[in-house]
Design brief:
By secondary structure, the protein is an alpha/beta fold. It is 31% helix and 19% strand. The N terminus is likely disordered.
């Protein structure tokens, strides 16, 4: 149990009761008027909470500290998440963790999901039914005994409780369908026949799967898999790991909805080793895929029904729960890039923190020689393909400005760039691999104006699609920053 306590000064008596002794530790302002709360005859839980404190319930002891878990979001999602945190801080529902406590405790990710009415909603990465809800549900189940007669209201109440638990019960919708169909077969009106009593027959015992031990205690730790498909191929992301594939000629003839659902299936199979035994959330920009996963099939398209049937049965063995959520195409940048044949060799972007360190060591560059709007670190840049670049395309075909330049270019472009630096006496910060065996490396050494600086190794050292797609092997590059000057 985790206890939430607050020591406060005693307020003036605003409810007409006696003021508690100042030597007593008050849990809240309400505890000062415990006598009045007893007079109201509330539930024992309310009296206990007022008299002592509120206890946050954990089904099991939280795991030991395994490192700080960071939640990374972008643009609109970052604003919404910050507003949520500010709101919780203002309500004193959470507090800033002191520096002395950062290396202990248990951390959970926060992420955002789209709302049905538009916009985004922040949710934590873990969900579990409280003991009170589980006990209430089991109490309702015990009333369904063969031969008993129950009010239609009680049957609807059980259905409502089942529906509220589908987010944390594996195949919850599927488990309640048979009982739901049996209830609808009575053709009763929820507003007119609430008090009508119905017999509990053998066909009503379709609720037996809900009595399985442990069904309601599995909870959820959500692993997110983002997928996308195009007529060319498919791509997916999970925990910064990426995968992509290309469709066969036969698969390209399929409907795009079929390809999107197939992409989700292939992605789940690929990431199965890290998803095994977890609750999985599939993010896709295809609403049909979301419907066929969350509604556990459909009736309009037979090929999609067959594919979703195979997917759901396979997932029921591998995962605790599978859900899907819709994401706008403009926010699904990583999988979209992968499904279109990416990542592109010329579009890698250095991490902004590394770039800031380079500026601190060698000075801030003003012109980027090989960049695009997605990976430029300078307001002025030349581009290889973007005709709207501020300085135009093909830096080697134009005179370079007389200012500090920078370049993070393709390996095959390093030699021409070095020749330009020597011939035009330019000042350039070059980010390139430390490969002494290459013929251009000796040229770099001859142009050095300061000691090279090795970029620290990190998983997201260079990335694409707004940081969603990272290079799989950044250690192979051994990137260094070189300050070069052509001799006058």
């Amino acid at each position: 149990m985790s206890r939430v306590r607050q020591v406060i000064p005693f307020p003036a008596d605003t409810l007409g009761g006696d003021i508690a002794s100042p030597t007593v530790l008050q849990v809240s302002r309400l505890a000062a008027h415990l006598t009045q709360w007893h007079a109201c005859a509330p539930s024992p839980w309310v009296v206990k909470t007022v008299a002592t404190d509120y206890q946050l319930q954990f089904w099991t002891r939280p795991p030991r500290f395994r490192g700080i878990i960071s939640s990374t979001v972008r643009s609109e999602a970052a604003t919404i998440l910050r507003e949520e945190i500010d709101s919780l801080l203002q309500k004193k529902a959470i507090r800033v963790v002191p520096t002395s406590e950062t290396d202990r405790g248990w951390y959970s990710r926060y992420f955002v999901v789209p709302k049905k009415g538009g916009g985004l909603r922040p949710i934590p990465g873990r969900a579990r039914l409280s003991e009170h809800r589980v006990a209430t549900f089991h109490h309702c189940l015990t009333q369904f005994q063969l031969g008993h007669r129950l009010r239609f209201q009680t049957i609807l109440r059980l259905l409502g409780m089942m529906a509220s638990m589908i987010a944390v019960v594996p195949l919850g919708l599927l488990l309640m369908r048979a009982f739901q169909r049996r209830t609808l077969s009575h053709r009763l009106c929820a507003s007119c026949h609430l008090w009508r009593r119905l017999p509990i027959t053998a066909s009503c015992m379709l609720i037996r799967p809900w009595k399985e031990p442990g069904l309601l205690h599995q909870g959820s730790f959500c692993k997110v898999v983002s997928t996308d498909a195009s007529l060319r191929g498919w791509g997916a992301l999970c925990d910064s790991a990426s995968v992509r594939g290309v469709w066969t000629a036969l698969q390209r003839e399929l409907h795009i909805n079929h390809l999107e659902l197939l992409a989700a299936f292939l992605a789940l199979k690929h990431f199965c080793p890290v998803l095994m035994g977890q609750h999985v959330l599939v993010r896709t920009d295809n609403s049909t895929v979301v419907s066929y996963i969350n509604r556990q099939g459909g009736t309009r398209f037979l090929p999609l029904l067959k594919l979703s049937h195979s997917l759901l049965l396979w997932c029921s063995v591998c995962f605790l729960l599978l859900r899907a959520t819709h994401i706008l195409g403009c926010l699904n940048l990583g999988p979209d890039l992968l499904s279109s044949g990416g990542p592109l060799v010329r579009e890698w972007r250095l991490h902004p923190l590394d770039v800031a360190q380079i500026w601190d060591i060698f000075g801030r560059a003003e012109v980027d020689l090989f960049a695009s709007r997605a990976n430029a670190h300078c307001p002025l840049f030349f581009s290889i393909t973007d005709h709207d670049a501020p300085l135009g395309t093909d830096a080697l075909a134009h005179p370079c400005p007389d200012m500090l330049l920078c370049a993070f270019c393709l390996v095959e472009m390093i030699q021409p760039v070095l020749e330009r630096v020597r011939r035009q006496h330019l000042s350039l910060i070059l980010v390139a691999p430390w490969w002494p065996a290459k013929p251009w490396y000796a040229e770099i050494i001859s142009l050095l104006a300061a000691r090279p600086w090795q970029l620290p190794l990190r998983r997201d050292l260079h990335s694409q699609a707004g940081g969603e797609v990272i290079h799989p092997r950044p250690e192979l590059w051994r990137l260094h920053a070189y300050l070069l000057r052509g001799q006058i």
